[in-house]
Amino acid sequence: MHRGKGMKFVGDSRIPAKKTSYIPKDYSEYPGKTEAFWPNFLLKEWMVGAVFLIGYLILTVAHPSPLERVADPTDTSYIPLPDWYFLFLYQLLKYKYASGDFTLVGALIIPGVAFTALLLAPWLDKGPERRPSKRPITVSIMLLAVISVIYLTWESVVTHDWEKAAAQGEIKEEVEFDKEAEGYQIYSEQSCVQCHGENLEGGVGPGLAGTGLSAEEIADIAVNGLPPGMPPNAFEGSDEELQKLAEFIASLE
Fold first, then answer.
1. DSSP for 181-205?
2. Which of 4, 113, 124, 197 is deepest in the core (most CB within 10 A)?
3. pLDDT, tens digit (0-9, with 9 covering 90-100), for 190-247
4. Please, which residues bridge with residue 176 across strands?
5. What CATH number is attached to the domain comprising 240?
6. How many domains does the chain have?
7. In which residues is heme c bound (predicted)?
8. 239 lies in which domain range?
9. In angstroms, rounded to a whole number, what is the distance separating the alpha carbons of residues 179 and 199?
């Protein structure tokens, strides 16, 4: 009997006969299809980034951000407007069942439900399909969210009074006057400050600098009012105080 007669060798298919190298091929083996990261690709990225940066800087110089006057906490007539990406929530809070007694619904519950639905969308539809028609749940949730945001944003833009908003935020030159003057002391003691501002710059009522009115005309308005905003008998002082107040306001430029 010869040595090794009747012996069989069984190979394991899980072990490759030759070790394969997992080192990726050099980019030079793909001429015309790839390039070196440094400096070729990185230089292109820097050039594109520089173009966008310069374009953005030119845009900020040509169209600077609109500035408004300094915030005045005593001006209760000012209506703030959020940035454009929050306009849909701003519009939502205008509706009956999302404002007033239902502010909690519009501010927390509705946005919370929408955010939770988008958060759970990947777990509600875990299918391998990539076509939108094959993934109705996630596609429906996303379309509903996008359509709602676009509609509410559009409604907020078209229903907002942009002229009034520009007027209430307009930067006005401050009036120079002596706050120790007797006329201003009378002004600050009356209810005039609530409507015309501490510095007579205006608020609910118009500014009182450069009205072009005489002292007699100002005194008449303080007593008899001026529709629609100025009520009669707004001044509650003596005739002498009224005269000093009217002369003080008439002297402002």
1. SHHHHHHHHSTHHHHH-TTS--SSS
2. 197
3. 777 777 777 766 666 777 776 777 878 877 887 777 776 677 777 777 878 878 877 8
4. none
5. 1.10.760.10
6. 3
7. 192, 195-196
8. 182-250
9. 9
